[in-house]
Amino acid sequence: MNIGIDGPAGSGKTTAARLLAKKLGIFYLDTGATYRALTLKALNEKIDLFDTTALENIAKNLDLRIDGNEVYLEGQDVSNQIRVPLIDKNISVIVSYPQVRKAMVRLQRKITEQGDFVIEGRDITTVAFPDAEHKFYLDADPKIRAQRRFKELTGKGLDVNFSDIEKDLIRRDQADKNRKVSPLKISDDAIVVDTTGLSIEQTVDEIIKCINSGK
Ligand code: DC
């Protein structure tokens, strides 16, 4: 059984997906982490971000292992390195290339072959896992989403500015929703959960309620 969750940055989907998987005793995949690791590799290798062929090659040969929240690139734990503003700034162009996405979706499908998964991202319910048994779209007020992201980054000790975070979030929303390939959108059969006034526990309870009622 797969549960697919899509939604914009800061909608709470990563934390909710993680807790949901824990409560249900199944695996969890953050597909954003796969694109983040690819972006890190491209930056490390100083690849021209407009060189689609080089990026496709990296995507096809990416040595990536994901274990819950931990992400290993070529055997190295890069879990923290991939969740910084430098990656946020460079990722949108990379995730817009169809051939790159194709290779990454193949990798995500391979990772999830090992069992039941909660899978979260932007195109999970629409493109990558359209056959998921349960589909959700999490959303929240942009101001609240920016506050959550700011809290996450400052919580890690990063020196960031709220207005920069908010601007970058809005820019990424636009890029994710308006790109030609696999844009972020609400799948016809997805249940929308507005997490603006909800805690993570409440969000997960709402999702479990929907699953138990067969949605
Ligand atoms: O969920 P996140 O913020 O870690 O995702 C990072 C970026 O990757 C985000 O700007 C959009 C992109 N992404 C995507 O295009 N498709 C996915 N399935 C997951 C993430």
Can you give keywords for this protein?
3-stranded antiparallel beta sheet; alpha/beta; binds 2'-deoxycytidine-5'-monophosphate
Please provide the count of β strands.
8
Overall spatial form: globular
Question: What proportion of the residues form beta strands (DSSP E)?
Answer: 15-25%
Order of helices and strands: EHEHHEEEHHEHEHHEH
Average pLDDT level: 96
Low-confidence stretches: none
Q: What distance lies between the first and last C-alpha atoms, to the nearest angstrom?
A: 13 Å
The biggest beta sheet is recorded as: 5 strands, parallel
Radius of gyration: 16 Å
Helix content: 40-55%
Structural class: alpha/beta
Q: Name the strands of the widest sheet in spatial order.
A: 2-6-1-7-8
Tally of helical runs: 9
- Bound ligands: 2'-deoxycytidine-5'-monophosphate
